[in-house]
Amino acid sequence: MPATPLDQVLAQFGGLQTAGFILVLARISPLFVVAPLFSSRQIPPRVRTIVACALAVGLTPIAMRGQHIPNDVLALFGLVLKELLVGLAFALSLALLFAAVSSAGALLDMLVGFSFGSIVDPLTGNQSAVLTQLYGLVALAIFVAIDGISWVVGGLARTFELVPLTAAPDVRSLGAGVIEGFTTIFSAALQVAAPVLLALVITDVAFGVVTRVVPQLNVFAVGFPVKVVVGMLVVAASLPFVSGWIGDQLQLSVAQALQTIKLA
Asked: Which of 111, 212, 231, 246 has the fewest C-beta atoms under 10 angstroms from its C-beta?
């Protein structure tokens, strides 16, 4: 029985919607591979897949508005690669923020001495010490408390307006934005760890002066517990300021990611 015009229209509509769903899912997927919380190993892969597909279903009508997806397989494959690149650039902006916070914790672990007792971090599966895990958990808690998920999903939806499904971004512009993000990790880590770092340096200087005055004092036996106490006290006092910094930087990182994609 020959197909009616209505059947042809429905078949074409279904094909276009499926292609658009695949492209949207390709842009969302890096978020569940690279970005913190979304890519947590505590969330089963099946759950992450379901959430990613649900987001793709919700964002597909927005992304498909005014777009005509080509039917050619090669052209569609190229668009999928482009969507993966744009999604990866957006997800890296969040990952670099949390990498800076974890780097601050790792730096303090080395100065305080906690790096000698490294254990496995259940969130990432990597080997990390006490303060690295503490700062990572605080960053995730702040991310959830300020409704960072809404910021991320809203920013992801905004990317479809800046770079439509059928538009090609400037790879050099995206690469420059990612490189700039990597170069700011160390400076951001120093901003987070600055109060504790300053307190530990002052403690070391004080022990150096005491050693010159009282040479009989075993500075290694006394200095380690004192540095631990001083470090933990300053960490506890500075965590509220770190929380505010993380909240501000989260909004800034999403805005910078959108700006990088917009410039592309």
From this structure: 212
CA distance 136 to 234: 17
The 3-class secondary structure across the chain, one letter per residue, is: CCCCHHHHHHHHHHHHHHHHHHHHHHHHHHHHCCCCCCCCCCCCHHHHHHHHHHHHHHHHHHHCCCCCCCCCHHHHHHHHHHHHHHHHHHHHHHHHHHHHHHHHHHHHHHHHCHHHHCEECCCCCCEECHHHHHHHHHHHHHHHHCCHHHHHHHHHHHHHHHCCCCCCCCHHHHHHHHHHHHHCHHHHHHHHHHHHHHHHHHHHHHHHHHHHHCCCCCHHHHHHHHHHHHHHHHHHHHHHHHHHHHHHHHHHHHHHHHHHHHHC
Q: How many angstroms separate the Cα of 66 from the Cα of each of 14, 55, 80, 170?
A: 16, 20, 18, 21
Neighbours of 230 (CB within 10 A): 17
Q: Are 113 and 227 in contact (CB under 8 A)?
A: yes
pLDDT in tens, 25-74: 999 998 898 888 888 877 888 988 899 888 888 888 888 887 777 777 78
pTM of the model: 0.76
Question: CA-CA distance, 37 to 233, in Å (whole number)?
Answer: 28
